[in-house]
Design a protein that fits this description.
Low-confidence stretches of chain A: none
Order of helices and strands of chain A: HHHHHHHHHHHH
Helix content of chain A: over 70%
Distance between the termini of chain A: 23 Å
Number of strands of chain B: 2
Number of helices of chain B: 15
Strand content of chain B: under 5%
Low-confidence stretches of chain B: 288-294
Mean pLDDT of chain A: 91
Mean pLDDT of chain B: 91
Strand order of the largest sheet of chain B: 1-2
Helix content of chain B: over 70%
Strand content of chain A: under 5%
Structural class of chain A: mainly alpha
Structural class of chain B: mainly alpha
Radius of gyration of chain A: 23 Å
Largest sheet of chain A: none
Shape of chain B: globular
Largest sheet of chain B: 2 strands, antiparallel
Oligomer: heterodimer
């Protein structure tokens, strides 16, 4: 690619400098969160930027973990079930739109496209009343089912253009071997769309993991998600007031760690998936 | 015929889900806007009464003004910052450096939304990070309770998230820049145009498809940005931070005014829909533009 400025130091140095400064600022909240959980209230007051460590090491992290561990597990299950559902259903539909000819394909595609124009605030209230009417209040299904539905439009769009980008020859060869559509989806379309599936999956994980409003309407505090736990933080009475903030930030960090691990593990696919340029109009 | 049935079988699960959990509640929402409804007993049809009341509700009118400010500042600044970073990374001479900077910015996506908001709440506290930085550069006299001061609360909410680089938008822009054919860039360099002119006349027109998607997502995103004011200000102080979606939420779940809340949602929906459609209509997509250039 010829987009770069080669060798010219007067241009190069400012580029790196600007990117580094912006990057440090953008990542500062994460740094602040992690170190604030390590220090105590007095150390925080002295210098909010410092990397001080309260004794014994990691004490607030241990306390925060005891506060939040059950909610974390519950949130992992809810998120995993939702993302698997979004991906499986999304791939099935995207494959149909990309590779099959059928009656009503245009109309049905517009029905999916129309979903992008339905904002979540519009459906929030009736959706709450609907899952309450279904008797799902206090049940994780009250979250999983709407999350699967809500993730469809974006997933189908992006998966569809990814499948359309697969060269015809791949499918031609399979068809000669007599492969069914389901088989071609599993053996060709899905493996070749893996980066974009991972990218969409990660975006859904972060959105679902951090969702607060709808969970707090349908789940009780005794069965809350991790995001609800940090939003409605109730410090244990044994923690002195001055250290409550540190305990809170330790909890924030713990809640973020699973996402950070997922990103570190999948970042290559994530970057590659979004680099395919499937997201445009 | 059997081909159609087969395809419908692939689509059926999606359509059952979106019918039940997206379209049905959306229809209920639109019709609920014309009712008086507490969410428990049966809704009562009252025509346009809610809308009439809304246009005389100063909190609602104010909330729209706040959203207007938030959008006019937040969307350009957010898209501009993401684009700037995408361009800077794209211009780096080493593929490795490009990759690692993209990774670094992608990491900002790891912070769950609610955690980011609560972290910023802490930054704004008296004696917090913002105050400390201001004192350090000799501007300590401006220290204030940013979120509790009616003069600063809305501004503080808008400023939140500095430096506003949306990692998703940035990666999408970067992908667009990457896909510009090398010959076009070469032709531009041969003509010897300056870097800024190259951005304006060559690169921006060629990533219009990406700019369009992100603009539409930003419009939809900012109208439903409920969490910051809900968690940090609750519409206060002195009603200075109400936005329509928060007013909707409070009407529904604090005052049990479902009908009134849904009429707010209705107006907000129509406004954001019109804006999104106008954007789609009037921004030429990059495929069309590229055809003209090539």
């Amino acid at each position: 690619m010829t987009g770069h400025t080669h060798g010219n130091w007067a241009v190069r140095v400012p580029h790196y400098f600007a990117l580094t400064v912006i990057g440090v600022l953008a990542l500062f909240p994460m740094y602040f969160m992690a170190v604030t959980g390590l220090k105590n209230g007095i150390q925080l007051e002295q210098n909010p930027f410092s990397l001080a460590i309260a004794h014994p090491f990691g004490t607030f992290y241990r306390q925060a973990w005891d506060y939040i561990d059950g909610d974390m597990l519950r949130t992992v299950l809810i998120t995993a079930a939702s993302v698997v559902g979004i991906t499986v259903l999304g791939m099935l539909s995207a494959y149909a739109f990309a590779r099959m000819e059928f009656l009503g394909s245009t109309v049905l595609f517009y029905v999916v496209f129309g979903l992008l124009l339905i904002p979540s605030f519009l459906t929030l209230i009736p959706l709450f009343l609907e899952v309450r009417g279904m008797g799902l209040i206090d049940n994780p299904a009250a979250l999983i089912l709407p999350y699967i539905a809500g993730g469809q439009a974006f997933a189908i769009f992006v998966f569809r253009s990814s499948i359309q980008g697969i060269p015809e020859e791949f499918f031609e060869a399979a068809r000669i071997d007599g492969a069914t559509h389901l088989r071609m989806l599993l053996r060709i379309a899905a493996p070749l769309s893996r980066p974009i599936m991972i990218a969409v999956g990660l975006l859904n994980v972060t959105a679902i993991w951090g969702d607060y409003v709808f969970p707090s309407l349908v789940l009780p505090v005794s069965r809350q998600t991790a995001a609800m736990a940090v939003g409605n933080f109730q410090p244990p009475p044994s923690v002195p007031d001055i250290n409550v903030v540190n305990l809170q930030f330790a909890a924030y960090t713990i809640v973020s760690v699973p996402i950070i691990l997922l990103f570190i593990f999948f970042i290559r696919y994530f970057i590659a998936g979004l680099a395919t340029g499937a997201v445009k109009m | 015929m059997s081909r159609t049935l087969k395809a419908w079988a692939f689509l059926a699960p999606t359509f059952i889900f979106v019918g039940t959990f997206c379209y049905w509640p959306a229809i209920r929402a639109l019709e609920g806007a014309f009712t008086s409804w507490d969410g428990v007993s049966a809704p009562k049809w009252i025509g346009f009464k809610n809308f009439y009341q809304l246009f005389h509700d100063s909190v609602f009118l104010g909330s729209f003004l706040h959203l207007l400010w938030w959008s006019l500042i937040g969307i350009p600044v957010g898209m501009g910052a993401s684009l700037l970073v995408a361009l800077l990374i794209y211009r780096l001479d080493s593929k490795r450096a490009q990759y690692w900077f993209r990774v670094a910015f992608a990491l900002t996506l790891c912070l769950p939304g609610i955690v980011g908001i609560l972290t910023w709440e802490n930054f704004y506290e008296i004696g917090g990070v913002i105050d400390t930085l201001l004192s350090d550069v000799g501007l300590g006299r401006f220290d204030t309770a940013w979120l509790a001061n009616p003069h600063t609360a809305l501004g503080a909410l808008i400023f939140m998230g500095f430096p506003w680089v949306g990692a998703f938008a940035m990666l999408v822009f970067y992908a667009g820049l990457q896909s510009i054919p090398g010959e076009i860039i070469d032709a531009a360099s041969v003509d010897g145009i300056s870097s800024l002119r190259r951005v304006w006349h060559v690169e921006l027109p060629l990533i219009k498809g990406q700019l369009k998607v992100i603009l539409i997502l930003s419009i939809i995103g900012i109208t439903q940005n409920l969490l910051p004011p809900l968690l940090l200000t609750g519409g206060g102080p002195a009603n200075t931070t109400w936005v329509p979606v928060l007013y909707m939420y409070e009407n529904a779940f604090q005052y049990a005014q479902m009908g009134y809340a849904l009429s707010i949602a209705f107006i907000l929906f129509v406004v954001s829909l019109v804006l999104a459609l106008v954007t789609m209509r009037y921004l030429r997509s990059d495929n069309e533009t590229r055809r003209r250039v090539a």
